[in-house]
Amino acid sequence: LRRQRQMCIRDRITTLVMLLTSTVSFAQKDSITLQREARKLVREGNKLYGQNNFIDASVAYKKALQKNSAYKKATYNLGNSLYQEKNFKEAIPQYNVALESEKDSFKKAEGYHNIGNAMMQEKNYQGAVDAYKNSLRSNPTDDETRYNLAAAQKLLEKDKDKNKDCLLYTSDAA
Asked: Which has the least CB within 10 A, 7, 38, 126, 145?
């Protein structure tokens, strides 16, 4: 009787192990399938982006991120697409998310450069200056970023002078 119980317990454990193994295997296959679908959607988005169809490209990138939320290329490309749609407020967070775990210094520099460009479009000159400086920290040889930094600094100074004049004007009126 004791031997029968041991065999029964062993059979149950074996069944449980097999069930868990098949579940893990299924989850891995499901994850791989989602990654493939995400890559396919990014390729579709890239094709649409190349055709200057930025709205549909954004939709494809968003769908890719639904399949694989950690797909940096989809996040970055979504930022580019939103930028081209002139949706700068939405583009900036996409670039920031793409930069969070980026190790490649040139890709980091590109991301910060794009953030700077979006900030310039939003007339957030201080944010643009900061972004361009971050870009140059990652790639100090980028002349385009250096030029954009100088332009942002000029606009920031001009904006500060304009605000100072407004403050002087309002204080005189009181």
From this structure: 7
pLDDT at 20: 57
Calpha distance 123→141 (Å, rounded): 25
Place of tokens 């100090």: 140
* Helix, strand, coil abundance in the chain, percent, nearest 5: 85, 0, 15
Query: Which uninterrupted H or E stretch holds 134?
Result: helix 125-138
Q: What DSSP designation does 52 have?
A: T
What is the per-residue pLDDT across 2-11, written as a single tens digit (0 to 9) for each? 666 666 677 6
Best CA proximity match to 96, nearest among 63, 127, 60: 127
Q: What is the pTM of this model?
A: 0.77
As given in the structure block, the two tokens for residue 60 are 């494809």
CA atoms of 142 and 39, how far apart (whole Å):
30
Cβ proximity of 109 and 135 under 8 Å = yes
Residue 39 identity (one-letter amino acid): R
Separation of alpha carbons 86 and 89, rounded Å: 9
